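Predict both folds.
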Amino acid sequence: MKKTIYIAFLALAGLSSCSKETLNPVPSNAVSDVQIFSSVESAQTALNGGIGWIGYYLTNSLQVIMSEVMGEDALMTSGNYGIDTYNWNLYSYTYSQVPEDDPWWFGYSNYIWQYDYKGIDAANNIIAYVTDMPEESGKENLLGQAHALRGFMFLRLSRLFAPTYTINPDGPGIILRTSPADASSEPIGRSSLKDCYEQIIKDLDYGREHCSPDNAAYFTPKSCALFMARAYLDMADYSNAAKYASEAASNLFDGSNLMSQTDYQSGFMNPNVEWLMYYNFNQTTSNYYASIPSFYYLAKSAVNMDATGKANPADIEYLDTPQESNYFEEPLYGYSTVRWTKRFRDSFEDSDCRKLFPFYFYAADGWFTSKFSHRDLYIGDADFPLARIAEAYLIKAECEAHLGGDAAGPLNALQTARGASPTAATYDNIYYERRKELYGEGFRLQDIKRLHQPLDRTVDAEHWASVKSLPADSPRFMLPIPQIEMLYNKALTSADQNEYWRK
């Protein structure tokens, strides 16, 4: 059966609002499989389209920011302090997601599910068609990239739409479609978490063995190894998690392969020696106002701050005006709706290069962060790290703590490299170091889940959401299976919906 592969999937140059029409762009052209899979060179176009779904704003931006604001360190502005919420991720913060997609800002799961599976379908097509192509240079890497892409997407979906692996590996995971899908495809139900993670590991390991090491804007053996370590950590398989974290870090845990403090403070916009994989945003592919820096960044500093870091609230009016340079250093006003609690900000020593919380306007509204900035002050023009060696240090430390090995070595090396004081390698210190190192990068929700931690926002006065605490292993830590999937996938019944949203 002839299948159409969509190539151009982004048309965001004119993105300036958040209407539902904007959130459902239509591909601008299509190429048949006869053309696109005629050679490795042409099939690369399909791969680029598949990789593109990783950074698409309705997957990457929503997932990353959602995973932070559903935790306790980050929060959304309430809209009462001079900057509107724009609805983006507000309903993640308040735990108000719904399976429906109308209105769109309540139904994030619909977009994440839909577009991550588009990436999976692109990978499935490459695997199905390229396998039968004549051997030529680049074919091995192309297949490696496709397997790695599929494993990466399956892992991303499993973490959001399934319970924690260690609760019940035989429990419901996601839908494992490993062949090209069209209207005539047989419906598939949810696979077990065990089967999902087996497929994830299998795909990522294939990528680890076959991907080229030359371009970190694509999957490489080391980034695949880190994603495998991430998956094994979810499974509490500490031996394998440590093994692949070590491979990702080239067995170096002395700080020599970490970015400099200057690089860390530069605004996470350019790849450096520590970034094993990144999504390549530029002025052509940028998500503009829907980019991650747009939600996090306002400026590196402000004038007229008092001793506590409070900027003059009256200066908000100068944003986006010719006078703004008089009040802010390198200002860029995107959405700027994500804040951080004072407790979290104060947990960093002044010498720690990760203490990137330049100012606040109102104590009740939280602190801005400058960890994520934009090149040339162009909104969204900033590459985003998908895999960093620092994560390998943290995985190694956590695993060695469980295995009775040297957990302090990698933990203290990371802390020293960041300008922080070394601490004892207790579980709590390792877990909190993850929060300090990886904040804003989309890890917090999954850590709450896999570590069986409760949500506790009661210690921070800035949190205004009605949901201030949840017990460990709460079903609300999972996203709902989209209603459209439940309606049209005849392999699913109402019992297949995640617990909190069952009717």
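Second protein follows, with its predicted structure tokens after the sequence.
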Amino acid sequence: MTPILAESSDYAPFEVTIPPEAHGLRLDRALADAVPSLSRSRLQGLIRDGAVAFDGATISDPGRRVKPGERFTIVVPPAEPAVPKPESMALAIVYEDEDVIVVDKPAGLVVHPAAGHESGTLVNALIAHCGDSLSGIGGVRRPGIVHRLDKDTSGLLIVAKTDRAHQSLSAQFHAHGADGRLERRYLALVWGGPVRQHGTIDAPLGRSRTSRTKIAVTRSDDGRRAVTHFEVLERFNAADGKPLAALLALTLETGRTHQIRVHMAHAGHPVMADPVYATGFQTSASRLGTEARTALARLDRQALHAAFLTVEHPVTAKRMAFESLLPADIQSLLDGLRHDGSLKPSVPQKKRRI
């Protein structure tokens, strides 16, 4: 479809002429095809708010069927100020352009304001950092959060700066890599270790019935589908030959709350230092050497890091790949395990060390 579109400045009206091939389409669909920078849901809101006119008369029905040659005017108001307040804080910016920003989030930083965390979040910091470069997600000048990391999980996170970018990134994360555009991989140190080098955990997740703050594996009719793929990168066996710890690479096929942490705990190999899902491993910790045991004691969060992110750029369609090295606290624990004379490290064949 090649609609005729004229645009003169940031907030000047869009003038759209309906082409022959759009005959019979809904108004919101036809306008979304004509103006890629505005999502269909955003256009529906603009139509209902009286921001779209035909021959000088306001149109209020997004479902109105269009005809070739009809001319519509869209007046897009400036984005409203974001509700969260901007807060200046240091950010590790991995990549940024006019459409997206990639951040290496440290452990301890909450992504989005919520009860108990109304300020001091990544969103507050991004509003301050991006300023006027945020064109408005759904009409509000705010960053478009398309995925999240737990407060105490570190690593790569991509955020949309425009409505157009938000649409594409949301679709990519909704597909979870099934269409080949997105890949997310995490690194984790876990207790014990899977027997197989590669494997998949397919177990539905839902709220725990014993604690509303925890997630648990549930029956398929009670939970949401959750699939995690793992690969053992390095094993650390005790003197008796039994696995004590392992370094894993994990790929998500779905994106549920606490998915990796719960799935690994369910498999009997919880993430090391996880304060929620790895309780009861004091005996295992006592078997570590001094260096590893000290590093574990200093690690006040789960040993989980979002290390690799590959996405398709929402505008250029260019494939972008990013990598984040293990942060110092997890690296110290990994080094401690590698240097532990009482353990027998082993690396599966054809796999490089991280």
